[in-house]
Each structure stands twice: as structure tokens, then as C-alpha cells.
Amino acid sequence: MATRFARLTDHPLFSGALVLAFLAVLALPGQALSAQEAGADEDVTYTRDIAPIIQQNCQICHRPASVAPMSFMEYRDVRRYARRIKDQVARRLMPPYHYDAGSGIQDLKNDWRLSEEEIGAIVTWVDNGTPEGDLADMPEAMVWRDEQMWQQEERLGPPHHVIKTDPFDVPAEGGDMWWRPIVPTEVTSDRWIRAMEVRPSWPAGRQVVHHANPKLLRLKEDGDFQPLGNLSEYAMGKIGEIVPEDAARLIKPTDMIEWDTHYYPMGFDVPGDQIELGVWFYPEGYEPEFTQNLRLYPLQGDIFLEPGGTSMTQGFYRWDHPVRIDSFQPHGHVHLHGMSIKAIYPDGKQEVLSMVSDFDARWHHSYIFDDDKSPLLPAGTVLVMTGWYENSADNPLTDSEMFYARGSRTVDEMSHAWIAVSHLDDEGFERIKAEREAKSKVTSDDGAGSN
Ligand code: HEC
Asked: Do 299 and 428 belong together in one domain?
């Protein structure tokens, strides 16, 4: 009974007040029962246990004038969506991060995933009938940073250089829209980049920009441009690219930036919208120890998807020098179900480095490894990228009655991995390895001492 009526609260036609009246009359006995069954877990309360999780992990998007369609600022808002919240967090669909908890490197920068304990608390709280708890336990409201500031401004100051898209008129109504202007970098000399960040306009852009990726194009001697991969990438909530301390990326006056931006109309006109790329440089004359580049690594082979069918592709890459893998981002369209990267070391040992088995083409993430955990691959290591695809009726983004094949239109399927690689020499490789070993020794010695 309780379940059935709680589900009604999700229906847009039901106003909160009407539903409350229903629940008060009919649903209470059911709720009391599940609370009894839950035993000790009974005292998970909104104010003490759930509000901090919602504040720190959801409100950035679930608040007025942000990207999500519903706000989770007040107890009654959260209670109203409780069943859907339970469902989304239990399936790890929200926060929208999509990185496997069970396999590959788990130490990531800017990791949005909830812990098992946080997920368990939310599930128990919803099963217990969403008790509010003692108002005195309610944490202070979040203080949001000045929205006009760059996310990295506190640490690095304002960016040294800003590159903007050409203006784009976003209409009030319509479906997905793509805007791909090519603009000059307007840097005046070769510079090494330390950090980058993409920022939509405020406040309108924060709602209508779904993602925005500036790609670097380098002028070749024959006058053509060579794509060098994304400089950075924006998806709501993400901080920019931080290049590791010992590495840097180069930008030249003759480079161009090709923007790949995706807008979604939200019910109001946004005339002349511009998205910005902020760039922080190393000082003039700086020479990095290693260079880093972010580029596309293709997965080869046919993709043929019949209704209900599956497909698989692979890519292989071997460097002739030691490298460090700094980040990994799977890319595919709506049928890509998962992608993994695996190392086969020269001694034959194999290791899964990263796994995304529930890819969602609506959310693009570059998974950046923690500085001391990014994989170090000796010369001759083979990197194996595997992508798998499914044309399934469970997938709301596609018509699974149709056939699909490889291609570059949105309805076709394709895939590749974006990988940021620092290019090392033998000396650098050995030094980083030794530094990490020394650090992990200190940490385990500390641990032993405090026990
Ligand atoms: C990066 C932004 C972002 C964050 C962080 C985020 N959400 Fe969302 N959420 C969205 C957007 C956008 C939608 C609507 C589109 C969609 O469903 O993908 C959404 C939809 C939802 C829905 C409705 C899904 C459905 O179809 O029933 C629920 C429930 C939800 N979010 C819960 C949460 C919870 C709980 C958290 C924190 C633990 C959270 N979200 C964090 C952006 C976010």
C-alpha cells in the first residue's frame, strides 16, 4: 500500500498537498510496519544523515537555475522524490558519474561517486518512510561560490587567457542543438599550459549548455590542421583539466580551437550565448620535464547491431617509450554499453586499469587518476581498449527495432577513447616509481606506528 501511494507522488499531476492528504489517511500503517522491520536502522533521519549527503552531492545540480529539472533544497522536495532518489542512487545512476566501483584504479580526482554507506543510508531512509528528524540536527545551508568565478580561480587566480565561442542564439523550444565554431587561439607566443577550464555563461548558459569541448587544431606545414584532441571539456559540475605538476601541454599562436558544444533549449531564449575557455600558463620560458597530450585512440572493427543484438570492438596501442596514463574517457553514442582499458606489461602480466560498464552518452566524463595512482607503463606495454555495444529495448535513447552500424552521425554507432598521456624517459619513469614507493612506505610506516 505505502509503495503504491508513494509512487503516485512522482506523477507530475499530483500536487504535494493532495498526495499528503492521501498518505495521511492511507499510507501510515504501511510506513510504521517497514520502520519496525528495519530495527536499528530506524533512526536514519533527514536532518542528521540525509541532508548532508544531498547538500554535498546533489544540490550543485538540483537547485533552482541549475541543470537538473527538480530542486532538492528543502526536506519536502527531497521527500517528494524519495522513491526516485532511492532508485537512482541504488543503481548508481545519480550522481551521474558512471565509473565502476569494483574494478580498475579507484583513486580519481573529483570523484562524484557516493560511498556504500551513503547509498545504504538513503535506501534505509526511504524504506523507513523518510523521517525528518530533529530540526536542530540540520546542517548549515551550503554556501555556493560566486557563480561568476572560475572554479580554479581561488587556487590559481583569474585565467591568463580566455578563448570564447562565436555567439549562438539558443531558442526557447526545440531539441538538442550542436554548435561547432572554429576560432583562433589569439595567444601571441608558444606557451605551456598548466590548467584549463570551460565555463558557460551565467546564469542562462548553466542551464542550456549540456556539454562543451574545445578541441585543439595544429597548423601543419602543408597548411592543413591536425586535430590534437580536447583541451578540456565541460559537463555540469566538472572542474577543468589539471595537468600534473611535472607535465604540460603546448599551445601555439597558429593553433585554432574547434568547439564541439551541445545546447538544450529550456523554455526561454538565450540570444548570443558564448562559452569561454580559461587557460592558465606556466611562466614564459618554462620548459616542462614531460609533455602531456590528450588524444583519441580508435577502437577498430565492425559494429553491426541488429534489433536486440550486441557487438564488440577493440583498439591496441604500444608506445616505444615509458608513459604515464593521466586520464581516460570513453566515447561512443547511445549503444555503447561499456568500455575498459587494460595493460599487458612486457613481462606478460595483465591489469585492468579502468572500467566503465554502464556508459551513458548524455554524460561525458574524463576520469583523471590521482597523481600517485596514475598507471606507469614501461616501454613496450600494450594498451588494450575494449568497447561493447547493445541494441536493447532497455535503452530509452534508441529504437531497438532498428539496425545500426558504424558511422559518425548521432544515430550511428562509433567509439574511441580519449586518453591523456605524459611521455616519460627511462630516467623519469624510474624516478617517479621510486618516489611512489618511498611515499607508500612512509604511509604504511605511519599506519604501523599509530596502531
Ligand atoms: C551533475 C549534475 C547532477 C548531479 C550532481 C546530480 N544530478 Fe540528479 N539529475 C541531473 C539531471 C540533469 C537530471 C535530469 C536528466 C536525467 O535524468 O539524466 C537529473 C535527474 C535526477 C532524478 C530523476 C531521474 C528520473 O528519471 O527519475 C533523480 C531522482 C536525481 N537526479 C537524483 C539525484 C541525487 C539523489 C543526486 C545526489 C546524490 C543527484 N541527482 C546528483 C543532474 C544531476
From this structure: yes
52-64 pLDDT, tens digit per residue, is: 999 999 998 899 8
| Co-location of 242 and 95 in the same domain | no
Ligand 1 binding site (Cβ under 6 Å of any ligand atom): 57-58, 60-62, 67-69, 81, 84-85, 88-89, 94-96, 114, 236-237, 362
| C-alpha of residue 263 to centroid of ligand 1, in Å | 18
Alpha carbon distance 153, 264 (integer Å): 27
Question: CA-CA distance, 98 to 132, in Å (whole number)?
Answer: 30
Residue 244 cell numbers, joined: 600534473
Instruction: For 349-394, write each residue's pLDDT tens digit.
Output: 999 999 999 998 777 788 999 999 999 999 999 999 999 999 988 8
E strand residue ranges, 69-185: 161-164, 168-170, 177-179, 182-184
Mutation choice for ligand 1 from 50, 85, 88, 206, CB with most ligand atoms inside 8 A: 88
Read off the DSSP letter of residue 307. T
pLDDT tens-digit series, residues 278-315: 999 999 989 889 988 888 899 998 899 999 999 999 99
Number of residues that make up the chain: 451
Closest ligand 1 atom to 112 CA: 5
Q: Which residues pair with 130 in a beta bridge?
A: none
How confident is the model at residue 450, as a pLDDT? 42
- Between CA 446 and CA 451 the distance in angstroms is 9
Q: Is residue 223 part of a domain?
A: yes
198 shares a domain with 183: yes
User: Once rounded to an integer, what is the mean pLDDT over residues 431-435?
Assistant: 96
Distance from chain centroid for Cα 141 = 25
Q: How far is the C-alpha of 171 from the C-alpha of 267, rounded, in Å?
A: 8
SS3 448: helix
Average pLDDT of the chain, as a whole number: 85
The closest alpha carbon to 115, from 125, 104, 127, 106, belongs to 106
Answer for the pair 77, 69: CB distance below 8 angstroms, yes or no: no
Residue 164 has what pLDDT?
Answer: 97
The Cβ of residue 268 has, within 10 Å, a number of other Cβ atoms equal to 12
Q: Are residues 268 and 389 in the same domain?
A: no
- List the domain range (segments joined by +) for residue 189: 156-288
Instruction: Confirm whether 166 is domain-assigned.
Output: yes
